[in-house]
Each structure stands twice: as C-alpha cells, then as structure tokens.
Write a structure and sequence with these properties.
Blueprint: H1 8-16, H2 23-26, E1 34-35, E2 41-45, H3 50-55, H4 61-73, E3 82-85, H5 99-116, E4 120-124, H6 126-133, H7 139-142, E5 147-149, E6 152-157, H8 160-165, H9 170-186, E7 206-207, E8 210-211
Parallel strand pairs: 2-3, 2-4, 4-6
Antiparallel strand pairs: 1-3, 5-6, 7-8
Helix pairs in contact: 1-5, 4-9
Organism: Raoultibacter massiliensis
EC number: 3.2.2.27
Family: Belongs to the uracil-DNA glycosylase (UDG) superfamily. Type 4 (UDGa) family.
Length: 212
Amino acid sequence: MKKPHIPLDQIRAEVEACRKCALCEGRTQIVFGVGNPQARVMIVGEAPGKNEDLQGEPFVGAAGQYLNELLAFAGLKREDIYIANVLKCRPPGNRDPQPEEIQLCTPYLREQTRTIDPEFIVTLGNFSTKFILKTDVGITRLHGKLQRAGKFKVFPIFHPAAAIYDRSKRDVMETDFRTLGALLAETPDPKSIEPAKREPEAEQLAFGGEEA
C-alpha cells in the first residue's frame, strides 16, 4: 500500500520543530527547500552554508549564481525545478555532514521527494549522490551517467562549489548539464500527459535505505 503524500507545508513545520540533533542549536533558520512543487527535476545538494542559513534558501551566494548558469545549459530555470538538501540545518564551520545527522535528517528529504514526485533527481556532490544511490562510489566516477534509484532517474553532477574552487571542473559540469537537458528532451514530461493516457505508476521503490 502506497504511503499518502504529506503536504510540503506540513513537512516544513515538522522540520522547523525538529530537535533531533545538535545542529538545531546553531542554526539561524532551517533551509527546507524551494521551487516548483510539481517539478520534473529535483536537485539535491548536501547541506546549507552560511548564506543559506541566513536566507533560509538553498543555493544562494556564489554557488547559487553558478547553479543558475548551469541550469541554462539544460534549458531550465530556477522556477522550473525544486531544490533541497540532505541536511536542513547548517553544520558548524561548513564541515561535512556526519553519518548520524544524515540518518536523522533524511526522512524529511524522502517525504519531500515522495510529495514532489520528480522524474529526475539531480544529486550535487558526494553526500547526496551516495545517499540517494546507496553507494560508496564517489562523484568523480558517477557524474554525468544516468542512474536509477527505484522509480527515479538519478543524474549525479559535481557540486557547483567544486567548480568555484577548481575551475577545471567547469567544462565537465557544463557538459553534464547539457546531457541532462538532452535527457529531458528525449521524452515528454509525464506530468504534462493526461492522467488517462499515462502508463501505470511503478511501485515507489527505495532510495537511501527506505521506500521513497
């Protein structure tokens, strides 16, 4: 039996009340996610940074500006997609997410994904890629190659911040976003097809260790 979808506002309220780990003590505000709730493409990053913590929105600042440029290579705009992170609170000093933090926080991401029901999940960086695909293989080997996690098409790409620190990655990232655009163009958006003409929905299988 499929789990019912939870409205995004309800999930947000649960995150705002969350005190499961110590990250809640240092946050200015949660960084829940933003974008089109009917998006065909959901982008999943790693964790909020300083600017995200202050503004309450993922991918702002330099990395966010570069992400906007990259989206254009795929024929996308920010308003077309939904963006969220593995963690909803900023780790101190922008350190990497810890395994226990990921375990405690990612049920919210699963519920967001179930509600938005994207066709593509674009994972940016190692932590989101390894979580969604349940793999130990790093982003260097997986980027730009279409994967599957249950019903979802998963397309791993380097984190935009990586290209800010290492400009040699820019050509690779732009190529990967062009590939994403080509994949989107290959088939019509399933959500634009009349319900009566859609293929029966596949069982919502797992990513990150649980049914998604």
